[in-house]
Each structure stands twice: as C-alpha cells, then as structure tokens.
Amino acid sequence: MARTYTPNHLAEKILSLRSAVEGERKQVTVFFVDVKESLQLADRVGAEDWHRILDRFFAILADGIHRFEGTINQFTGDGVMALFGAPLAHEDHAQRACHAALQLREQVRLFAQELKQTRGMTFAVRMGLNSGEVIVGTIGDDLRMDYTAQGHAVGLAARMQQIAEAGAIYLTGHTASLVSSFFVLEPVGRVRIKGVREPVRTFALVEPKPIRTRLEAARARGFTSFVGRADEVAALEAALSRAVAGHGRVVGVVGAPGVGKSRLCQEAVDRWRAQGMTVAEAHCPTYGRSLSYATLLDLLRSFFALPADERPAASRRRLRLRLRRLHRGLVDELPLLFDFLGLSDAKHPPPVLDAATRRSQLSACVCRLVQTQSASAPTVLLIDDAHWMDDDSSAIVARLVEAVGWTRTLLLLNFRSDYTADWMQASYYQRLDLTPLASDGVDALLHELLGTDPALAPVRAMIKGHAAGNPFFIEEIVQSLVDHGVLVRQGSLRRVGGSGRQASVRLAQPIGELHIPATVQALVAARIDSLPEAVKLVLQDAAVIGKRFAEPVLRLALENDSPPADPTAAAATGVVSGAADLARALRTLQQADLIRPEPSDGHAEYSFKHPLTQEVAYASLLQETRTRKHEAVARALAVVYGHRLGAYAALLAHHWAAADKRYEAQLWRGRAALQVTNIQLRRDRVRRSST
Asked: Which of 444, 465, 475, 447 is nearest to 514 (CA)?
C-alpha cells in the first residue's frame, strides 16, 4: 500500500530532500496567511502577550494545514507561507489548500471571538492562494537550510494575501479554474499587480459545493458517453447475480489513475439503483487517510440516507425509523450510531468507550446492519478510491468482508494497483483489472469531443498518442486546448442519432507542442512522488534516456552522474549503487505499473507504460540537472553500443545537444547524416541490381 504521509512523515521527507534533491519543478498551490493590522495589535497588548497570542494562532494554523497534508515552510512574523503539493506532490493540491483555508477561517473566527470577549481585541486574518509551477528545494548553507519554493507563483500568492480584506480568502484565476467545480467563488475583479503585465483575475473563496469528487464534477458538467467497457460491465453483472443468489461477493476494480474505475462503478450502481436495488456509497477523499473513520462515516450516512444539511433531530428520526424497519433488535444500537454520526442528544447519551472497544462495537454494528439488510433485500455497497481509506475504516471493512460471504451482498471497491489488503485472500473476492481503452473506444470518445472535421485529424492523432487510452487524460487534454484557445467549441455537445453526443469544434491556431494539463501533470507527479527517493531517481534518469531504455544504459548513466563514493552517503541521499539496487528499483517501478519490460534480442529493455509518465518525470528536473544527466546518458550510450555506434548516431547527437555540448553534438549529427546517406546508397544499389 502507498505510504501515508502524516506531518511527521512530511518532515522526514523534507530532511531526506535536503541532501537528495538539488531542486525540482512542481505544480503546487502556495498559501499565505497573516494577521490584519498586526503592528497595532502588538503595540496595544505588549510583546509578551502578543507572543502568547501568536503562539496559539500558529498552533491553529499548523493543525489546519497539516490536516490536509500541507507543509509550513516559512514563518513571516505574524503569519505563515505554506505549500500544498510539495515536497510530496498532490493531484488535488488546490482543493486541499482551499479546504484548509476555509477550515482555518472558521477556527480563527472562534479564536477571535475568544479574544474579543477576554481582551476586547479585534483579531482578523487575510489569506491568499495561487497555483502554478515553482522551483522547490533547499536553500542556504550547512548551518541553516530551508526547504522552500521560488518563482512567480509565490509572489502572486503573497500579493493575493496582501490585497485581501479582513477575513477574506483571495484566489488567482488559475487557482479558481482548478477548484471552481468544488467551491463557491465570488469574482473580485481584475487586479493590477506590480510586476505583472496584465491585470490578474481575482476571486474570493466562499464555501464548499456539495460536489466532492472528480466524478461528481464531471457529472455536473455532463458525462461523455460510456464506451469500451462492455466486458467489465458484464463481469459486474455476473458478480451481482451471484450475490443476489445468496453467494456474497467482494469485487475490486483495479487500475491506473484516470482509467475509469470510478465511472465504471458509478454506471453500475446507478443502473442497479434504478432497478430498485439497495445501494450505499462511500467516497474516500485524497486526504482521507488523516481523518479517522471518514470512509465509514460516509458509508453509514449513505446507508441511512441522511442528507448532509438535514437538522440533527430529523436525522435521528430517520435513523430510528430505518432501524425499526430492519429489525427491532437493532434499536439497541442507537446510542452508538447517534454518537458516531454526530447526532447525540440528552435522551441518548454517548457510550463511554476506549478507542479499541469503540472500533470493535462499530465493526459488530456495521456487520449486523449489512447482514440484516441483505436478509430483506439484496444490497450493494460501493467504496470509491479505497486506496485513500483511513486505517480505522480499513479495519472495519476487513471485518465487513468476512461478514458478507454468505449474504445477498455485493461489496464493490475500486482502487489503484499499488493498494493491497489481507481481505483480498477471501475465496469470494474477485479482482477486475481495468485496462486503458482500446483504440475503437478512444476513437469514439474523440469523435464525441472533437467531431469529425478532417482538419482535426492531426489533433486527434496527437491526443491519442499522448493519452494512451486513458479517458481522463483525453478529456483533460481536450479541455486544456479549449482553455488555451487552440480549439474553439461552437455550441455545446449535441445529440447524434439519439444515442451519442458530438461536439462542433474548430482549430483556431496551430497546435504546436502539446502541453500537459495542470490537472494531469499533478496526478502523474503525485504517483511519482509516492515512490521511495532512490526509485524516483531511477525513474527520472530513465525519463532522460527516453520513452524506451536499456538497463545497461540506465545503470551506466546512474554511475556517470557523479554518485557519492561512500556507500553510507549513497544510502542517505537515495542514490542507487550497484546492479542489485537497480534491479530492485526496476521491479518496484513495474509493480507500480509505471514501466514494463519490452522484448529485446540483447540487453534487458523497458518502456514507460504511459507516455505522460516519462514527460512529467523529465519535466520535474531543473535545466542544470537535465544537462548533466543528458551528458551521462550520452557517455553511457557510447560505451554500451560501442560496437555499432553508427546506428545510434542520431540519438547520441540528441543527448549531446541536450547536454549543451555543441562540438560533440555536431560531430554525431555528421555521423548520423553519413549513416542515412550510406543506407540510401545501399538501397539504390539493390534497386538497380534488381531491375
């Protein structure tokens, strides 16, 4: 299972990066917060009292930021600068930052009320957020080193905070574009910022929307057609039939991010719900592993159909009625359930339990609920994105798996391929691997998104090559091209022939190089950053070689890239030393579904399973680092393929040019041109001799 990064783990990560990482490019959200009119407040209460107030304030900030796995990397006197998406990349860094900002605003409001009552102070903060690419890494000397971010995005976040009104949270337009599906935003207007050519679109963050997941956001916009999954749907229907017959089933839908796991499961449960099946769902947020029982809480609220905005008294009545309908004996569970769901009242005081006893009683209660429900009607339970499930919920799900074996229950989970759990050994567990869309499925999706204009054929081919069958990547790349004005939609998606939908799109400007959308880049970067440092280094070096690489070239390139001579230092900095270390790293990358072995007549060769993985890993390197690594690769190629350098002349020229070695690059370009000429001459001779 992927490692969970608590605040302590984040601190360990930073310490390792101080020695291992020279600097990286990352997509992050930068968050600034400070106290409004702090100088006047400090002068009013005195230095010691102000210090105590700030100490409490900083504790509130740290708790809120760490809750969503942000990192406080700088104290600004009366505030902090925090990063979401560094040192550990997050695929939803902007959403995390917004959730943290809203929670902090509420916590600070309560603190301000306390100060108003006890000291008569008016205490208010202002916050600013901006998202974008920054350079992160260590700065300073051996006596004092800080992990921080630098770049234009940092300055814009600071300016958002400086212009924000008391109690307000200001976002730039770029951050707003990443979170507008999930949060209510109010336009502030275009603000002129010193050093920025054009006025910056600015928004105020108001509150969360009911939409929580990427899938829910896509549903709100309008789903594209569900294509290419007939076999998987049939497998789920067969599993449900077995469960309805009294042979409970547990199905795990497994696949890479964006391949369509959540969409497949949602399509299935929506169909079953429409058929009258009892369905309960839980969606695990990306930061859910730091929230105890978050998944179980979501599942039970869905099981009892408790609206999030319903009054507690109404929810208690609804829950009590549901238990009585299921079985009168279940009413004894009311105090425990009321307490767990945050619905306790004077008539049902919460039971006094230690943590272990509470978990045990919750496990027994949940299993009893599901078994009783399935006795009256077949039941489907869906846990979406189970790889982000918290430990307490995971323990109860393990008990639930044991309980559904001989019931009319289908427990359906989806998760990424690096997630494992002991309950997968159950005899009634079925793994359903979800692979990228086949070519005809991709064509159908692109047909719907781009229409049939022949002028867009090169665009379709380019997107198809980059997305490699990943439907989320396809949709995000198309949307990115629209956002950047490369493509222009003429009207909305329209129905064609009563079944599918088709867009009317035209090419507004040359496409040039296809840029990776920020959403896709963040998702892929998060997968890469979850790797151990040594394995991540191997992946980055492989990305410098190209989409396909030979093991001896990679090994020699790693050796050429100035490794520490001391093995202890090598281990501390995450450097791969020796063939055994490299073999382990390559196995880890295969298990993570990032690379795959390729057939080869000679040396062991591998390729990136997805083209965008190679592009994101390469893009994360600073230019100076890339230059050095390209030289290491060029020297490795010359050694490994020394017996047939002519065939690799063009590749050597590419790497020497990228290493900024002009003489060597020109030399190998000449040899490559000579090689092409010789091949053409041989072909001409063969052609003449055959006529």
From this structure: 465
pLDDT, tens only, 598-655: 988 778 999 999 999 999 999 999 999 999 999 999 999 999 998 888 888 889 999 9
Mean pLDDT confidence for 114-135: 93
Phi-psi region of 632 (alpha: psi -120 to 50; beta: other; left: phi over 0): alpha
For β-strands 548-550 and 595-598, DSSP reports them as: unpaired
Cα distance between residue 280 and residue 670, in whole Å: 66
Alpha helices by DSSP H, 304-381: 312-326, 334-340, 355-376
Q: How many CB atoms lie within 10 A of CB 387?
A: 21
Q: Using an 8 Å Cβ cutoff, are 130 and 174 in contact?
A: yes
Q: Are 664 and 645 in contact (CB under 8 A)?
A: no
pLDDT one-digit tens code per residue, 135-151: 988 765 544 456 788 88
- What's the distance, CA 522 to chain centroid? 6
Average pLDDT in the 503-516 region? Answer: 81
Which band of pLDDT confidence, cut at 50, 70 and 90, is reported for residue 76? Answer: confident
Residue among 97, 138, 144, 105 at smallest CA distance from 124: 105
Task: Check: CB of residue 336 under 8 Å from CB of residue 351.
Answer: yes
Q: How far is CA 293 from CA 155, 204, 296, in A?
A: 38, 31, 5
- Sort strands 409-415 and 379-384 into parallel, antiparallel or unpaired: parallel
- The DSSP symbol for 454 reads G
DSSP result, 325-336: HH-GGGGGGHHH
At 223-261, the pLDDT tens digits run 999 999 999 999 999 999 999 999 999 999 999 999 999
Is the pLDDT reported for residue 120 higher than 60? yes
Q: What local confidence, expressed as pLDDT, does residue 17 receive?
A: 44
Q: 389: closest CA among 356, 364, 358, 411?
A: 411
What pTM, to 2 d.p., does this model score? 0.87
* Contact (CB, 8 A) for 383 and 389: yes
Q: Nearest CA to 441 among 248, 231, 214, 241? A: 231
* Nearest-angstrom CA–CA distance, 53 and 62: 14
Q: Do 384 and 281 meet the contact criterion of CB atoms below 8 Å apart? A: yes
Cα distance between the two ends of the chain:
65
What does the alpha-carbon distance between residue 472 and residue 59 come to, in Å, rounded to a whole number? Answer: 39
What's the mean pLDDT in 429-452? 94
| Residue spans of alpha helices (H) in 530-591 | 533-545, 551-560, 567-572, 579-591
Rg of the chain on CA atoms, in Å: 28
DSSP 351: P
Residue 587 burial (C-beta neighbours within 10 Å; 0-12, 13-18, 19+)? exposed
The pLDDT assigned to 569 comes to: 43
